[in-house]
# Entry
Amino acid sequence: MSTNEMATDRCPVCGKGKLHEELGEFRTDFISDDGKHRDVIVPQIKKLVCGQCGEYILDPESESRISAAQRHAMGLLGAEELMRLRNSLGKSQEGMAELLGLGKKTWCRWESDDYFQSEAFDRYLRLLVFVPSNVEALKLIDKEKRDGKTDLSRTFRYVPDARSTEVLARQFLPVLMDGPFN
Ligand SMILES: [Zn+2]
# Structure
């Protein structure tokens, strides 16, 4: 349905008012690490606003733009950076979800801007970038879990010392740093 068609529609919330188009900046916020609310302002967002109850509808493109702006303001890796990380590991979206222990479609959504990772998961992903041997460790963890071996002392035996992977990390980083990853 196009925006013009929707403009003549009735409001789905109150069922009484008619929707009209408004173009303007969109404000949202998030709570940063220090516990404070931070504003995110996204310009040129199209809203369909109800003249009666004041509720509004956003189209999917606007929602994605708002989501991307919030993600950026929160200092999280962006959709394109996640795609580059996945490609560097030679994984499909589903393969990536499997490796990380995510639901099948979660990674796919993160690569669009519809949803994004938490701060905690963002740090987890950065560990894979900065210490590539963590990817190998993850594969082992995944295998051990599938085999029903969940005892931590077994897994730790396989995780190499991070310092021994410094050379690898130096080769790997430029690939990921080439672009908006900084
Ligand atoms: Zn309404």
Summary: Residues 133 and 165 are 7 Å apart (CA to CA).
